[in-house]
Amino acid sequence: MESETLGATSPPAATKNPSGDQDAGADLLDDKLNDEDYPAYSMGRAAELLNVSPAFLRALDAAKLFVPQRSAGGHRRYSRYQLRLAQRVRDLVDQGTALDAACRIIILEDQLAEAQQINTRLQRRLDQNERT
């Protein structure tokens, strides 16, 4: 029941206009569904998907692994990216790593990956400048 997960009744059907383009509403929905950072999952659904308790997710928030967005009613909402981070922490905790240490490991891994991406982009730019 994905529509329940997104907090909507049902997505509007994509309609075609005379030019054959999809409706802008359908494009927006596709953008949200494909956005790794879109907060699509409630705490209950996120906990169910990860097979953890809501308290585990609150602990990740307290450990500053990530800060979930809040709905208009103040409820935590999680993105797919955040669920992947939570799953990685859960795997480490299941292997005996303390929660705080697991969160720190994941944070450092993500920082390293980001630094490597920046390094790769800068190296490409440098290589292009040297060729010209």
From TrEMBL:
Residues 1-32 are annotated as: Disordered. SUPFAM superfamilies: Putative DNA-binding domain (SSF46955). It comes from the Bacteria. The keyword Cytoplasm does not apply. One of its GO terms (molecular function) is DNA binding. Residues 40-108 form the HTH merR-type domain. Keywords: Coiled coil, DNA-binding. Residues 105-132 form a coiled coil. The keyword Coiled coil applies. This is MerR family transcriptional regulator.
